[in-house]
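Hello, quick one for you while I still have it in my head. A protein chain has come my way and I'm curious about its shape. I'm sending you its amino acid sequence along with the backbone structure tokens. I'd be grateful if you could look everything over and explain what you see. Here's the protein in full, and shout if anything looks odd to you:
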Amino acid sequence: MGKKIVIIGGVAAGPKAAVRVKRLMQDAEVTLVDQDSLISYGGCGIPYYVSGDVADEKELRSTSFHMLRDEFFFEKAKGVRTLTSTRAIAIDRTNKTVTVENVQSGEQGKLEYDQLLLATGSQPVILPIPGNSLDGVFTISDLHKAIEIKERIAKGQVGKAVIIGGGAIGLEMAEAFTDLWGVETTVVEFMDQLLPKAVGWTMATILTKHLREKNVEVFLGEAAEEILGEDGRVVGLKTSKRTIEADLIVMAAGVRPRAQLAVEAGLHVIPNGGIVVNERMQTSDPAIFAAGDCVEIVHLLTGKRFCAPFGSLANKEGRVAADNMAGIPSTFKGGVGSFIMKAFDISIGAVGLTLKAALAEGFDADVSLTSPSDRAHFFPGQDIVCFEMVFDRRSRRVLGLQGVGPMNDALSARLDAAAVALANSATIEDFSNIEMCYAPPFSAAIDAINAAGYVAENLCDGRMRQIGMADFYSWMDDYSSQPDWQVLDVRHPKQADPLVEALGEQIWMSLPYEQVRDRYEELPDDRTLIIFCNAGSRSYEIQVFLDSVGRKNTLVLPGGYNVIRRMGASWLP
């Protein structure tokens, strides 16, 4: 018999490592341990099971050839001994044993190992507020809870639901409740925007508007203070500003690494964080590896360690750990935080750092905002994709790319390309020259990712001066803050005139793009002109021309009407 390999955790990284080890070492004795009775399921698919897109929970636990991944599958098809409903309760590093306990019978035993993998995953954050244990309060921590939520909705027991937390899992659950089941759904987020760690304010505002259009109520900047109940069951949520009725509450306030077993074993663990591993996924004990949501990996942009609870990374890490346990010197360098999600009819995603995060890390950061077509503008069905590219002015390195677009592959293709580029320290010029496949049904001749790089070049080299979208919205809410500002709308009069009529010429004036060269002397020279068009490209051209004739008191509003229409504003007619 070969090596004794024990793997604790049976969702993503653990099963991946188990079957990889057996492929590399057929004589290895591999034991997979998990405290749950359901293992090796696609946790990221839970919202789509609740929504009905995935009809049966078994589909989340099945292979592509429709074989259920259970104990029988792992033992007979993969050669992996599997102990479900079995909790690992202690690691004896000196004697290389793991004490395990059957969660039903309480019976204990010991497993010997030559090498051990911890793939214990993450656990949901439980807000310490009154009522958090009432019947009807759920976290999305495992498949059992998802099954119970769906059963309650299907039985007509849920008419109103509240999601606490505006992160990805919470928003996916909000869509699941609303889209198929027609549940009256509210999202409550403590921060002043949705997805606060993933995207900037502009992209988040587009998402918020879209959710509200799809009948999901969104309350931002509100703290959940108390979950209200009657007879032991949920009836509502009290926030810092209101009380919301609810039959069901999903607490989606984030996750933290499940690392207690490692802490108790004396392994190096970040305080309140994940298990520290090297590039080979080894912990501070060379015989113990760790992978998945329970570990801290290196952020390839900042060099700092962070937790990245994504099934895609967990599988990669599990494979690397398995290779090294089998004597193959594989490495996992780290990640850049790639993320994408579906929200009804749009997709939203990001890779790398937001502008806020980049500034906090000490970068001389700025952002280019663009709104190009997702394919050739003349091709039927083309749509707009909005991008924010974050870059460092000193080094010209690109630090992040975020976007919102239609529900197709336009956004994911650009984010995937950006993820590879960011991991290799790509500059603005690299993005300007990334080669993307081109054909009118799929992309424009000047690809959206190249266009973002071009705008960043113009900003970095001082050829373009812009006003940030948040500053523009702030001014539109209070003109007195900058009384000498005025919008110059260079779109067609049919597009510009409704805003001129609604806001007045002192705020919003119209001069078509093709007339500026002949009529620029009519423009006021005692005001700062914010040049406005559909996407920003014509605005930039006009700024360059006006600079050439000595009119340098201009700012471009990047993204233009394409972005503003998707964000929404009270002043839009």
